Amino acid sequence: xxxxxxxxxxxxxxxxxxxxxxxxxxxxxxxxxxxxxxxxxxxxxxxxxxxxxxxxxxxxxxxxxxxxxxxxxxxxxxxxxxxxxxxxxxxxxxxxxxxxxxxxxxxxxxxxxxx
Amino acid sequence: xxxxxxxxxxxxxxxxxxxxxxxxxxxxxxxxxxxxxxxxxxxxxxxxxxxxxxxxxxxxxxxxxxxxxxxxxxxxxxxxxxxxxxxxxxxxxxxxxxxxxxxxxxxxxxxxxx
Lengths: 115, 114
Prior knowledge:
The complex is a heterodimer of chains A (115) and B (114).
Chain A: E1 4-7, E2 10-14, E3 19-25, E4 32-38, E5 45-51, E6 56-59, E7 62-67, E8 72-77, E9 86-92, E10 104-105, E11 109-114
Parallel strand pairs in A: 2-11
Antiparallel strand pairs in A: 1-3, 3-8, 4-5, 4-9, 6-7, 7-8, 9-10, 9-11
Chain B: E1 5-7, E2 10-13, E3 19-24, E4 31-37, E5 43-50, E6 53-57, E7 65-68, E8 75-79, E9 88-95, E10 104-105, E11 109-113
Parallel strand pairs in B: 2-11
Antiparallel strand pairs in B: 1-3, 3-8, 4-5, 4-9, 5-6, 7-8, 9-10, 9-11
């Protein structure tokens, strides 16, 4: 099955600086890569996703890049703000079965924005 | 905005007891999921459900687990004989489109097994 590795486990950056979180996946059939933000005690919420037919996607301060050959994808947050502090999870999935395929999550990155 | 709802928000049970966690997915969604998150750890896939049957399940989803869609709105997860290691937050999720797509998570049901 799919295996997703995520680094770093904790990332502390100064407010205003950029943050980068990296993930690798093992299953070359995976074609959907979402990123979730989870605040303490709350549900994971989708912040951005990318499909394997695209190399990069951007939404305001958040961007995701995908390298299919190397099987890795990254989350980039620019101009970080205190409200960006949370745990971020990457995930991967394939729709090879044509049905409801579960997401395989990374272990999460605790992002801390220092004021 | 429509959302996935879950009940109960927190359940405490004795080891060996049966537990049913309930979920109401977003009404026009077709795919339903259960995930588990042990405190401080990653979110783990348990099972997906489509067209009234299990589509995929993980190694965690063993014989003590079952899912059901008893009516047109509810989606339940049953744990037959709870163990201490079943203590976790259980998230229900649903998605609308075919294949992989955006998952909408519920607020979660925290299960504590004593």
